[in-house]
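Query form — protein Mannitol dehydrogenase

QUESTION: What is the three-dimensional structure of this chain?
INPUT:
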Amino acid sequence: MLRLSLNHISDTSAWTAAGVELPRFDIAQVKRNTRSKPEWVHFGAGNIFRGFVANAHQKLLDSGKADTGIIAAESFDFEMIDKVYKPYDNLTLLVLMNARGEFQKKVVASIVESITADKYREADYDRLIEIFEHPSLQMASFTITEKGYSLTGPDGHFLGIVEKDMEAGPVQPIHVMSIVASLAYRRYLKGRYPMTFVSMDNCSHNGDKLKHAVLTIAREWAKRGLVEPGFINYLEDERNISFPLSMIDKITPRPSETVQAALLEQGVGEMDVIVTSKNTYTAPFVNAEISEYLVIEDKFTNGRPRLEEAGIIFTDRDTVNKVETMKVTTCLNPLHTALAVSGCLLGFTLIADEMKDDTLRRFVETIGYTEGLPVVVDPGILNPKQFLDEVLQERFSNPFIPDTPQRIATDTSQKVGIRFGETIKSYIRREDLDPAELTAIPLAIAAWCRYLLGVDDEGQRLALSPDPLLETLQGHLAGVKLGDKVSGVRAILEDENIFGVPLYAIGLGEKIERMFYEMLEGPGDVRTTLEKYLK
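ANSWER: The structure tokens for Mannitol dehydrogenase are given below.
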């Protein structure tokens, strides 16, 4: 039985027989190099880091274009290090899956050190400080989710742990952004060395969010006299510290039991799925789609890995924004949200299964090709039509990517203004286009309103995904049942804070209301309404 460890991967013939590609570099030497000359630390030890970012760096190591590895630092779920990294010598078995069911298997060994950003684990924290005090450090990158950068709660006030950090100073930080600010301060004190902080999280203007969070904490410390005033100048001077924007796109879902079984059948053991106490689903393997995009603003102050030779795109800030706009407002995210809310209503539990449904496929094709492409922002480095083709023909249709509409439906109130509102704004701006002529986008909004009722298309109770506005939104629909002709849905549609546009003033409000009430008539009428408008 093959096991994922440094000792076991030395038996190259057995792994090759199992169809697994092995690292082609001297892992021990790279580990020594990294120990003495750290260049890259990454916060957020989850799947997209292991299955995309680390794999890209491995390509450089395999080809001799890099000689140090990545140090993984986990600031949220320390069990990731204890249960997924350490027991497997920091190795990951990456399984890439295409829609035809073909698996590409590879051992990723570019992560040569793993530590926790836990102040109570002194050896780990001392190592983090040592890394940040070293002149060789080029960058710290992040995949900590958008929430990781947030310093405030829904009420706009600082979180309790952030307030404690601001009062205590950089000595014993708790929040991840306070930890980062504290480590940056250690670097400043050691020698004012330059470096770059790169957010690779899937959120708009990610680098700006990271910069704002770090600077907010640093300024509060400076106000209290807890750091030297020059620290703020150091962080704000882009000759020293930079926070480039990036756009990342790759689906790395929870570990698939199908993949786990296939690995076992091929002789790879100890591939158990692990659920941590913080409800992280992980495993020694990462299953992921083949498609991947990472576009980064090329603004680095102390050098960087030659990741462009591993498929990463480096460009200017404006182009990163255009790529993100293309993806988020026309060619991927709006389609995902439409499938999410309609899929939940119609009883689907896999996005790939929805793509086998002629009506739902026509739904997202209309949003993408018919309504999105006429106003798409062409970034110049990626062709929008080809990107959309790949999304619909390969990515969403891939049955081996266990992505669910229920996951994607999370926080929809925070998304619809970008995913649909931006396209509507483009129609408003164009003299040759009329937003009132849109069909599939208003249909998606109507489906979301119908979803908020918490009743599926068969009239059964439907568990809704988490959303910060869920209580308020459901309050507008309190007491509404199938067959009703009156509801408070207008209050939802009139909320410009949600949609970013005045839906009624542009002729879409009444249209969406009409679609909503048609979906509300009785069991089966969500599907009937979709079919009616998508003929």
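ADDITIONAL NOTE: The chain is about 45% helix and 10% strand.
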